[in-house]
Amino acid sequence: MVRVRGLTTRLGGRVLHENLDVELRHGEVLGVVGGSGSGKSVLLRTIIGLIAPEAGSIEVLGEDIRALDDVRLRALESRWGVLFQDGALFSSLTAAQNVAVPLREQLALRPPLLDEISLLKLSLVGLPGDTAAKFPSELSGGMRKRAGLARALALDPQLLFLDEPTAGLDPIAAGAFDTLIRDLRLSLGLTVFMVTHDLDSLIAICDRIAVLVDKRLIIGTMAELLRNPHPWIQAYFRGPRGRAALAGKNGQAGS
């Protein structure tokens, strides 16, 4: 679904990625973690074409995004959805109008159908019907993220990019969002590329984990990474929070 080879990215004079490789397999959830400022979100934005890399190749859904003209890139963009931090909703639009934005950009639909699809997508992510007429300022943080997710799903994408989807949520809301992503992945057949710092999310929904260290990715299952001797990986997964998250998983498995 995504194949990156030899990626080098420089931002503000600093090299964030150097000869980085990653593949996203069909139907999986890949979680990307790393230290603050390591370039996790920059990697996501580079893959979807918002940041130009210094070197390397990026293929998404079989297309070399750096070789596409505007028309072909626009067509490719309709096959993926993106949830940015805090939902990134347009403050002057209602939740339903936000969901309708990609529909208006990509499809020639009449207003009644636009409204119907927007309501359907809001319902799909677990939002009540009265959310449609509310503005982002009237929604909680968790509701804004769900509305942003509804917009990301508006065009029935094959591929979903999530940038810190549970950041700023309390543990209950974060757990509910993880469950939502897991359920949508199964029901819609989604492939998910997720940048996160949330250990619980990694454990709950990710098939593999990509750790961004030393400007490259070390990728594996949780079990494989726990055996990796890299100091940052050991500190992250075997530190107090990592041990607590893993203990919680093992407790649930045994109950």
Describe this structure in words.
The protein has 10 helices and 10 strands. The protein is an alpha/beta fold and 255 residues long. The chain has one domain: P-loop containing nucleotide triphosphate hydrolases (Rossmann fold, 3-Layer(aba) Sandwich), CATH 3.40.50.300. The strands form 2 sheets. The chain has a 6-stranded mixed sheet with strand order 6-7-8-3-9-10, sandwiched between helices. It has a 4-stranded antiparallel sheet with strand order 2-1-4-5, with helices on one face. Helix 3 runs parallel beside helix 5. The mean pLDDT is 90.
Features:
six-stranded mixed sheet, 255 residues, alpha/beta, 42% helix, 10 strands, Rossmann fold
Question: Outline of this structure?
Answer:
With 255 residues, this protein is α/β, with parallel strands linked by helices. It is 42% helix and 24% strand.
CATH architecture: 3-Layer(aba) Sandwich
Instruction: Look up the CATH topology.
Output: Rossmann fold
Q: On the 0-100 scale, what is the average pLDDT?
A: 90
Report the order of strands and helices.
Answer: EEEHEEHEHHHEHEHEEHHH
**Strand order, sheet with most strands:** 6-7-8-3-9-10
* Tally of discrete structural domains: 1
Q: Helix count? A: 10
Strand content: 15-25%
CATH superfamily: P-loop containing nucleotide triphosphate hydrolases
Low-pLDDT segments, ≥5 res: none
Overall shape: globular
Rg: 18 Å
Highest-level CATH class:
Alpha Beta
DSSP helix fraction: 40-55%
Gap between N and C termini: 36 Å
User: What does the main sheet amount to?
Assistant: 6 strands, mixed
